[in-house]
Amino acid sequence: MMAEMNDRTREVFRRVVEGYLETGDPVGSRTLTRTMSEKVSAATIRNVMQDLEFLGLLDSPHISAGRIPTQQGLRMFVDGLLEVSDLTTEDRARIDETMGTNERDVSTLLDRVGSALSGVTSGASLVLTPKHEAPIKHIDFVSLGHDRALVVLVFADGHVENRVFAPPPGQTQSSMREAANFLNAMAEGRTLSELRESMKREIDRHRRDLDVLAQAMVDTGLAVWEHEGEPYERLIVRGRANLLGESEEDLERIRRLFDDLERKRDIAEFLELADEGQGVRIFIGSENKLFSLSGSSLVVSPYMNADRKIIGAVGVIGPTRLNYGRIVPIVDYTAQLVGKLLSGRS
């Protein structure tokens, strides 16, 4: 759409958006006649504004008022016309000063990062922290609704982390408690990744035991696998009434193995979802409800560790009329600085 605009239309659009971002007020045609690069009448500018309004890029709050950009218009402006300024010496100094301390605790450092961003930009800041990887002391699952759950991870070094994830369908608080009890019995001295590997070995061992026990029944035609290899496979026994002695005992052992295997599979799925869940977010300078309000924007940039792997993100939340040209380089610089600081620690 931007490529199809002529120079006059593009300039009117840009000046309306820039005027709105600066003042928060609608921009009128008479105002633009004083700033346009070419001499045009207010009537000509009004016609261009009407065309832009028809395209969904501008809106008129009142009949007699000027125009403001729509959400679509802001998006197009940010993507195609935004001129990002250089980071000012003052902004750089304030960020460097806040994070210039030799703070050993990562959580405290990231809290200071959030405070710095909030203070420099006069907006709310968001910090997505890297996930902790240390031996686990305790795990707990808390249901937040039918499609959301919270895993509370207490690490051996005293660090506590909360992660939100979507549990498997049909899970209850009771099943979550059972999963937590099972994992806590296995967790001591293991990291979350090591715990997942232990669960995988447990599942593989039970699967081998089940195969050995059931193979003889399959070979003699007394049973057949249904959905073999799939998570919900079943062993269908034919002519169970004809089974005698040890065969009946084998069938009971197979049933117990199936129950145990399915339980471990469910818990392993819990653990995998929890490991992939969102890390803790720290909000500085505003309440969480800001996200539920219409008319808010988020400028965010990831930060990386020494291996160039993304481990978190920092950002600024504010009204749609943020000074994007100033905020973008501040967020970008802060993310790079956090990455360097954390890489230096590791």
Automatic annotation (TrEMBL):
GO biological process: negative regulation of DNA-templated transcription
Coiled coil: none
Gene3D superfamilies per record: 3.30.450.40, Heat-inducible transcription repressor hrca homolog, domain 3 (3.30.390.60), Winged helix-like DNA-binding domain superfamily/Winged helix DNA-binding domain (1.10.10.10)
Xref: Pfam families: HrcA
Gene Ontology MF annotations: DNA binding
UniProt keyword terms in alphabetical order: Repressor, Stress response, Transcription, Transcription regulation
Keyword Ligase carried by entry: no
Domain named Heat-inducible transcription repressor HrcA C-terminal: residues: 108-328
Keyword Transcription attached: yes
Annotated family: Belongs to the HrcA family.
Primary role: Negative regulator of class I heat shock genes (grpE-dnaK-dnaJ and groELS operons). Prevents heat-shock induction of these operons.
Descriptive protein name: Heat-inducible transcription repressor HrcA
